[in-house]
Amino acid sequence: MAMGAGLNIDMDEAALLWAEFTHGRNASVRERLAALYMPFARMLAAKMYAGRTHHHVEFDDYLQYARVGLLEAVDRYDVSRGYKFETYAGSRINGAILSGMESYSEVHEQVAARKRIVEERMASLQDAPRPADKQEDLFGYLAELAIGLAVGFALDQTGMFEAAEPAVSHYDYTYAGVELRQLRARLKSLVNELPGKHRQVIHSHYLQQMPFDEIARALSISKGRVSQIHKEALLRLRDSVRAAPELNWSG
């Protein structure tokens, strides 16, 4: 019984499996080959995991991408060429891990950026001092905050400059769905009626998903001023929507 160096791979079994797989491309044989070479893929994944730069990523993620590369290598390996499978598969497994980590990092960065944008919106709407004495004043403050967030949420879903409306889900056929579509359509036109910098901030933040610091650099103003303009714009939009007779804002 011939064994692969240091990997406990039974080369005699591998030869039989490759002969069978080459002849029939059987799915179960493919899985047996993948299982046979999985220690090799695990070794490569462990090496890359040891040198990782993203410490929030688990080893199982590396192992999953290594398996993807291994299966691709099994599918494409040509026994007749005479070179070892490990030689052929190594670069493909490493490449699959690198591609997977790149995609993972992009998603992680997008989630982090999205979280930062939402936190900036919250901070912008919370700039006003909170009432400390009267309970009704506190309720009023919380109501204003909730309404501002609701306007922001509706703006986030408008897709202001898309040529076509997005596909409608079955939930949009409810009465609430119709009202929400009316609100979003109204907001599209109201945004274009905002004063210059207010319109620019809303367009940049909600359409282009730009954080406040990037908007500040683009408009040559401070980040704090962007936050103020954002809040003022949402309050203007809130008041305009409330005044629209065709919309029942208060329910």
Automatic annotation (TrEMBL):
It holds the Pfam family Sigma70_r2. Residues 37-99, 192-238 form the RNA polymerase sigma-70 region domain. Keywords: DNA-binding, Sigma factor, Transcription, Transcription regulation. The keyword S-adenosyl-L-methionine does not apply. InterPro entries: RNA_pol_sigma-70_dom, RNA_pol_sigma70, RNA_pol_sigma70_r2, RNA_pol_sigma70_r4, RNA_pol_sigma_r2, RNA_pol_sigma_r3/r4-like. SUPFAM superfamilies: Sigma2 domain of RNA polymerase sigma factors, Sigma3 and sigma4 domains of RNA polymerase sigma factors. GO terms for molecular function: DNA binding; sigma factor activity. This is Sigma-70 family RNA polymerase sigma factor. Signal peptide: none annotated. The keyword Transport does not apply. PANTHER family: SIGMA FACTOR F FLAGELLAR. GO terms for biological process: DNA-templated transcription initiation.
